[in-house]
Amino acid sequence: MNKRQVIFFILFILQAAGLHAQDSTLTPAGEKRKTGWTFGTLPVLSYNTDMGLRYGWLVNFYDYGKGHAYPFYDHSIYLEASRTTKGGGIYQIQVDSRKLLKGWRTMLDAGLFTEQGLDFFGFNGYQAWYNPAFIQPGDPAYISRVFYRIHRNMYHISLSAYKSFFIPSFRWFAGIEYSHILIHTVDIHSLNKGLSGAEELPDTFLLYDHYVAWGIIRPSEKNGGDNTLIKTGVIYDTRNEEANPSGGVWSELQLLGAPSFLCSHPSYLRLAFTHRQYVSLVPEKLSFAGRISWQGKLLGQMPFYMLPFIYNTVPNYTRDGLGGYATLRGIMRNRIAGEDYVYGNLEIRWKFFRTLLWKQNLYLALSAFADGGMVTRPYSLNAAAVPEEYRSWISYRPETLHVAFGGGLRIALNNNFIVAVDTGVPLNPQDGKTGVYIFLGWLF
């Protein structure tokens, strides 16, 4: 992102938010205390040879009410609609409210996600061999640019409610989450539309096709299915703010059950524990943020298509993939998939510029981070039908810690609408090369 693009983003979100934002008194940090409704908005625009042009829009509305709790909001509504010229798309709504039901915080997350090239590297981290030559045109070992991809359509809806008890910082929650997932091999014919010659993808077996043929992916799971999770747990939260805390802790323990009578597969039970710590190093300028999470199966049998999901509580949401912008920046999305896993993040955040522009609170921040994670209990594989010459694909080397380092930039409007640009570099080539991500918010 060059200087002109950064300036464009700043001016764009300021102009958009200025249409309805109101203000009154100053906060202790010298910012305008926002009241009423405001919003931030951005275009979605990217291009990939295989997936085509992605275009669309996202907008996040915030209601600060009378502003007494600013920067905490009363209501947040996030909308995104984007698609690609070759048929992929994201259509999503997220609603987070502290006022809809008195004494409760409620959350809705619903969406349709169509991915023609979702990352799929197999199971159990480094045990699954990643060979970049397989996806590099011109290399003697080249197979296909989409060799490590699958096609997935997912319909998802989640409802949850949170309530304090004993003390305000201690809460319990309950919720339900339903996903209808359709999976098949990549549609080569669709992706080859508009391509010719060497750009065309060959019609060949991909990694997913091999896993199905060998029986590693069960026949009953190969095309996806229905999954319903019943969730409950407790949260201890003493953060001084949500969007970018500089003090306090945020810990949660979740129990997630998928009963067979609400799913298309056998029952299973998972446990997820996450702890986050925030420390102010220089007041209002420099802070440290750390996160450690363990998520694992307690009992039952999980379908392969549910392995990558990461579970968090509001205002974070269920995420897809250990690897990628939401978990391990710089490491390829879904690179780490197993029954149990642990991951963590260490980050230094520096607000180097803060101002009031067009009655909007604006700050710029830089960050430096280290991310890491690994499978702690592998997904059980039936490898009886795997030919000897392919054994290294599923038992390449023992699993160890996957690590990446990087940095990022944040452009924040009224503390909550935050445009993020992060770049991460993995230490091991088995985890990919450099990852560049543009998204909203701080990671945690």
Number of DSSP strands?
20
In the sheet with the most strands, the strands line up as 3-4-5-6-7-8-9-10-11-12-13-16-17-18-19-20
Characterize the largest beta sheet: strand count, sense, and whether it forms a barrel.
Answer: 16 strands, antiparallel
Low-confidence stretches: 1-8, 17-21
* SSE pattern: HEEEEEEEEEHHEEEEEEEEEEE
| Gross morphology | globular
Q: Supply Rg.
A: 22 Å
- CATH top level class name of the domain at 80-353 and 370-402: Mainly Beta
Can you name the CATH architecture of the domain at 80-353 and 370-402?
Answer: Beta Barrel
Q: Which fold name corresponds to the CATH topology of the domain at 80-353 and 370-402?
A: Porin
Brief descriptors of the model:
single chain; 444 residues; mainly beta; disordered N terminus
Descriptive notes:
This protein is mostly beta strands. The chain has a domain at 80-353 and 370-402: Beta Barrel (Porin). The protein has 3 helices and 20 strands. It has helices spanning 3-17, 188-191, 207-213; strands at 22-26, 32-35, 37-48, 52-63, 75-84, 89-97, 105-119, 149-165, 167-184, 224-237, 248-258, 268-282, 286-300, 309-310, 319-320, 340-357, 360-377, 402-413, 417-426, 435-440. The strands form 3 sheets. A 16-stranded antiparallel beta sheet has the order 3-4-5-6-7-8-9-10-11-12-13-16-17-18-19-20. A two-stranded antiparallel sheet has the order 1-2. Strands 14-15 form a two-stranded antiparallel ribbon. A hairpin with a 1-residue loop joins β8 (149-165) and β9. The protein is globular, with a radius of gyration of 22 Å. The two termini are 23 Å apart.
